Amino acid sequence: MMKTIRATYPLEFSVGLLILIFVLSFFLSSQLFDVPWRDLIDGSDINAYVGMSLISIAVVIMVLILWEEFLFPIKVRRIAGGVTFRNRRKKLRTQLLIYCIIPAIFIYVYLNYQIHPIRFLIWAAICIIVPLVTKLFSGINNYNDFLKLTDKTIEFKNNKKSGVFKVTNIQRIRLVREHDALIKIEVTTGGQSHVIDLDEMELDVFLDTINDFVSSQYKSLLA
Predict the structure, then answer these.
(1) Which residue has the higher pLDDT, 174 or 73?
(2) Domains of the chain
């Protein structure tokens, strides 16, 4: 069972904003093509308009990947006695699939249109590299990470370590914050402290919900 904690934007707002981004990108992308401005104004070079439209589509796709709330609601998976927070695999697969369209568009435009190389490479680098570095690499790197909080156990896994703590054995839980943002959970069992590095996991969108759940579910154990 899934609980939505942050819905996507209203359809009218999303579509309107995407259209605005497309239109702005369409006009700005004219600088990438080696076509006289007069030919663009009077519409005599229709082929350039097709290229500009393709570049604008690539920009819209980049925005959809970077601004996940456009397409993907934030959901928490409820399980018996608690909740599970994890990188949404369906979301990541969808992002990777639509991302592949971006380099395909730029390769096609490069091979079929007269372009300004430097300007074209700058646009291509932004649209191809930015979503890859800021979203996709992180999602793939944290593909198997999760945090499971129940009335019986606290369980987690990231790339470096994993652990399971029985609630009955936990002596103390401390929420570590930086600039008022939750970044770690410190669990003390048997006199030893164990740190769950939330800042190294793909759980940014869940931090407020994790904070609220821990504060209520394990209230008696909080330092």
Answers:
(1) 174
(2) 2-141 (no CATH), 146-221 (2.30.29)
